[in-house]
Amino acid sequence: MQQHEQDQHPAHAERRQAPGKEGAEALCEQVRRANADKTPLRIEGGGTKGFYGRPVEGETLTLAEHRGITHYDPVELVVSVRAGTPLAELEAALDAEHQQLGCEPPHFGDNATVGGMIASGLSGPRRPWAGAVRDFVLGTRLITHEGKHLRFGGEVMKNVAGYDLSRLMVGAQGTLGVVTEVSLKVLPKPTATHGLRLELPLEKALQRFAEWGRHPLPITAAAYHEGALHLRLEGGTSSVKATRERLGGDDLEAQFWEALREQRLAFFDKGDPRPLWRLSLPNNTPPLAVDGDTLYDWAGAQRWLRSDSDADTLRDVVGRAGGHATCLTPGSAEPFTPLSAVVAKYHRRLKAQLDPNGIFNPGRLYPEF
């Protein structure tokens, strides 16, 4: 085993888990057979994000048993972990060192895995202030369509063909290859945390979002829900205290942000028959002329919408505002915004190079990919 893959501190030895090369080789062999026979593969981890995207028909390739933290250096703020590792297990290991995943990824269930975090690319309330999932990816290990197990990014192997392959895998939903391991940058946990709730009309709240964005305030989450502006302050004790006194408002329970991240607020009630949409918009976009109920997240840059509006009409309104809309309700014919002709051309070329026989999660993102 190469030196960089070894745990150098005895305190981290217990974090290493089997399987290793044997499990990876079995996965490689399954990919080689599928590629030779042109058999579609449905890549699966914990299954908690199966609703996100289009259903895939094919032979199941599971990564659930390919798990374990292979390297963790708290001093360097770097961790390497296999794709099948439960997300909760990784977070517990980081928490023991008072560290965290800066992108605050959602779980959507107890079986959430690191691979699912990478495949979906979904981030939580902290994303605008700390970064998205892809911003924390340093490198990956990937099984190619030929069944080769290669490492990209980091200090081992330079990316080829001009692609940053490690980050390309984030949000690709497994359509470009099988990610078996990922190296991530992690962050220290803040010294102090406090939540605020300020009752304000929507227009005033959006003005506050824009104003506060121009000042170095320790805000790491901002949402507008049920007639009130919700804020999370994180940082040094004195900074959080001073900002709390400056902004005013009532105390907010800490569980609010986890409930928002995991879609456990009443707004996300699965009994609501209206489709759930995720709108991604430029900062400071005013309210859109769409029917339905909206929850404003990421200081308004991400909006959750419950609406019966026609998909084409909704996407036209969002597109004219410079954003895009994703339907998170299972069964949607087109969950993702259709690609423009130019973007589709490059996507097709990339897919042809990395998966020429179309075996990796075919149709997961779009029917033709």
From TrEMBL:
Supply the name of the protein. Glycolate oxidase FAD binding subunit
| Source domain of life | Bacteria
Record keyword GTP-binding present:
no
Q: Which residues form the FAD-binding PCMH-type domain?
A: 6-189
- Ranges for the region named Disordered are 1-25
The UniProt keyword set, sorted, is: FAD, Flavoprotein
Q: Which PANTHER family match?
A: D-LACTATE DEHYDROGENASE, GLYCOLATE OXIDASE SUBUNIT GLCE
Report whether Flavoprotein shows up as a keyword of the record: yes
The record's Gene3D superfamilies line, in alphabetical order, gives:
3.30.465.10
What organism is the protein native to? Modicisalibacter ilicicola DSM 19980
